[in-house]
Amino acid sequence: MTQSRQSQVSLSDTPYYHCVSRCVRRAYLCGEDKYTEKSFEHRRQWVVERMHYLASLFNIDICAYAIMSNHYHLVLHIDEQHNESLTHEEVCERWCQLYSKPVLVERWQSEQTTSEAENKAALTIINGWRGRLADISWFMRCLNEFIARKANKEDECSGRFWEGRFKSQALLDEDALSKDLDTHLFE
Predict the structure, then answer these.
(1) b/e string for 65-85 if b means 16 or more Cβ within 10 A?
(2) Which domains are present in the chain?
(3) CB 3.0-4.6 Å disulfide test: which of 10, 86, 137, 181 passes with 90?
(4) What does the pLDDT look like over 28-51, one tens digit per residue?
């Protein structure tokens, strides 16, 4: 039985995680399809640009990555300390570059809330966003959904582009990190 992602990520044990996402339906993430002679190499840049954009918003650093023809690998570092040091305004600014801002949060930012209950509700939303900005699942969701939509549009199809959930593995020490990089990233 699969475990929830929350039970697999333990920042008290390690902030480093190796994540993998694989395409379905023999889809190409990048490279050249030898049968159709169609090149998908431009998609590599989609992944790289999106990863770096998300890293600028999330408190997750990209330590290493490898983009293969039908899957990619990421080694991510969660910067929990930096995440906690962000102000509420900084959290709003970052999160709202990805998703629309609720009216309640807009009112809170412009100091137009009318009660303590509204203030508390707005701060609850913002603190939820703070948690997401240091969450591998949200990072991977924002990356994979974006790539899937672009690839499906280009391929003129709909449906799944990725093989279910991404895989993740905790990297508990430097030996695990270097061994993981050697064995997985360049397979």
Answers:
(1) bebbbbbbbbbbbbbeeebee
(2) 14-81+137-173 (3.30.70.1290), 87-131 (no CATH)
(3) 86
(4) 999 998 888 999 999 999 999 999
CB 31 within 8 A of CB 69: yes
**Residue type (1 letter), 11:** L
In terms of Cβ atoms closer than 10 Å to its own Cβ (0-12, 13-18, 19+), residue 8 is middle
DSSP calls for 67-93? E-SSEEEEEEEE-HHHHHHS-HHHHHH
The model scores a pTM over 0.85: yes
Burial of 159 (0-12, 13-18, 19+ CB in 10 A): exposed
Amino acid at 180: D
Write out the two tokens for 175. Answer: 């030996």
Q: Dig out the tokens for 51 from the structure.
A: 């990863």
Confirm if 135 and 168 have CB atoms less than 8 A apart: no
